[in-house]
Amino acid sequence: MQTILPHPSDAHHYEADICIIWCFDDRFSPLLGELVARQGWQHVDLIKVAGGAKGLAGQPGETDRVYLLDQIAKSIKLHKPRAIGLMVHADCGAYGSPKFDTSEKEQEFFANELQKASMTVNHLRAAESSQIAIRKFFANFEGLHEF
Fold first, then answer.
1. Which of 7, 23, 49, 64 has the lowest CB atom count within 10 Å?
2. CA-CA-CA-CA dihedral for 16, 17, 19, 20, to nearest 10
């Protein structure tokens, strides 16, 4: 084994400020960095997958949904986040890069998707007897918006 980047890491256990499900589309990575900085979050459990919270809006039993719920449950168990962040974004390939007649129709569509994802997480919260806050984010090419 060859060390390619020497860097000490903190070995102490932490509690997460938030567990975020974010899309892996790199166009929105700088936005995530800015959000974390502006919120002052020190510890973020980040789950980056195609479509972000899209997988939580799907049908029960779907592979993405099961995987994401498992990851959130592990974050809750291991790092006790104070919030769960759900993100979807405009021009998302996981959604087939949908086009909308108006920005209002786009916002309505993604608000509904985030509501479905939030309901899925609510079932997990109930099973975990947790009152963790859920934050719903929509990113577009003008910035980040919260529902």
1. 7
2. -140
